[in-house]
Amino acid sequence: MATPSTSETWRRGRLEDQAIRAAFERLDTDGNGSLDRKEFAVGMRSLGIPVTDRAVDEVFNSADANSDGVISYAEFVAFAARRTAAMAAVFDQLDTDDSGALDVAELRRGLESLGLKASDADISALLERMDANHDGRITFDEFRDFLMMLPASNVRACFEYWAKSAAIDIGESLSMPDDLDALPRPPWKTLVAGACAGAVSRTATAPADRIKVMLQAGSAGGVPPGGGIRATMTAIYAEGGLRAYWRGNGVNVLKVGPETAARFFFFSQIKALVASDPRNISVAERFTSGALAGVASTVAIYPMEVAKTRLAISKPGSYTGIIDCLAKTFRASGISGVYAGLGPSLVGVVPYVGIDFVTYSYLKELYATRFHDSEPGAAVVLACGMLSSTAGQIAAYPAQVTRTRLQAQGMPGVDAKYSGMLDCGRKIAARHGVTGLYRGLGANLLKGTPSAALSWFVYEQVVRRLDDN
């Protein structure tokens, strides 16, 4: 006689009250007899599930039948019964030999049937996360307990969430994530794709970037008094024709690789220090790691930033190239010269990262609230990223202006006017008002959208070709 399938068994029966009660009490950390969103999120994180506000809301709202903002024990029992039946149906599709447990071969076939790439190491990581008794097989209880609180309950959704926690390539498009450890492909591919994307997008938007830097530098950049974008464009063209718009772009492109590598490296190292669980980093830990990684990577490649600014605003013939620029700067001002403006650069990291992070999260939440049943596509993610980045740039822009002024002083023909960041900011505001601290912002915003879109496109194309080879 055939053994009843797992789903048939669970449709005829129900979870034992004792098991449900134990699960509920584990989640109810304050012991008040109900679960709030925070307790629910903690429970999801404890299982190693990738936790986002959208995911928490989706599962929580599914369980909160009366929409009162908390989940009672009765609601949890009903939720557990529904999810167990759904998990049983998924389990039966994977358990092809009807043994009541999943082995490596079944896991691999399940992943391959969904077009999900997994190496032997991926499968081992997958088993390790779910195999509670370490016997090399996944029982239904282990499968159910791990996946009970996922936002969706179909086969692909289960494997995708499962795959994310084991770093399996689920075929999703990625822009430039901050965490190499969480990437579904070898780190070198991400670094190569990021460097290519940055080089192409920076070259394409170099004219707008040079205009921005010259406006920030003011008279040191050769901008006519009171001149704006049009006057600066005219001055650049008169200097050397169309080619002059790309002055300083060489160093801007060259620093993409080390800049990206440094940011990833420092993020990975700092995350390991600050995160309680580096494989499932919290929002606060990600923000802290990202900000500190930004500071560290800025310090590491900063001399190249000084060279980029000086090459962009200097008179033709002042420097023969990057090395000549840095050598002359060092001879004239020492180590302080090649690190001029570092203070405002570091000060600007926190507001930029903070505003960018908060705005991006808010926009994603807004989308999730308005469109409950759809995941944001590439266009939505890109738009959220551009808007949040713009907000961050506006918040940190005064620091950028003071940085450029400090980088420029001491160049041939440019006198030293400022004793430091605060003195520079005060003198700019005294002479030009608050708007003086935002000179060049228009040019900076103009290049934002095409730069982000082109970077995204090139990154995707390079990654696709690398993955195919």
UniProtKB/TrEMBL annotation:
Solcar repeats lie at residues 185-273, 281-366, 376-465. Belongs to the mitochondrial carrier (TC 2.A.29) family. Residues 15-50, 82-117, 118-153 form the EF-hand domain. This is Solute carrier family protein. It is a multi-pass membrane protein. Keywords: Calcium, Membrane, Metal-binding, Mitochondrion, Mitochondrion inner membrane, Repeat, Transmembrane, Transmembrane helix, Transport. One of its GO terms (molecular function) is calcium ion binding. The keyword Secreted does not apply. GO terms for cellular component: mitochondrial inner membrane. It is found in: Mitochondrion inner membrane. One of its GO terms (biological process) is transmembrane transport.
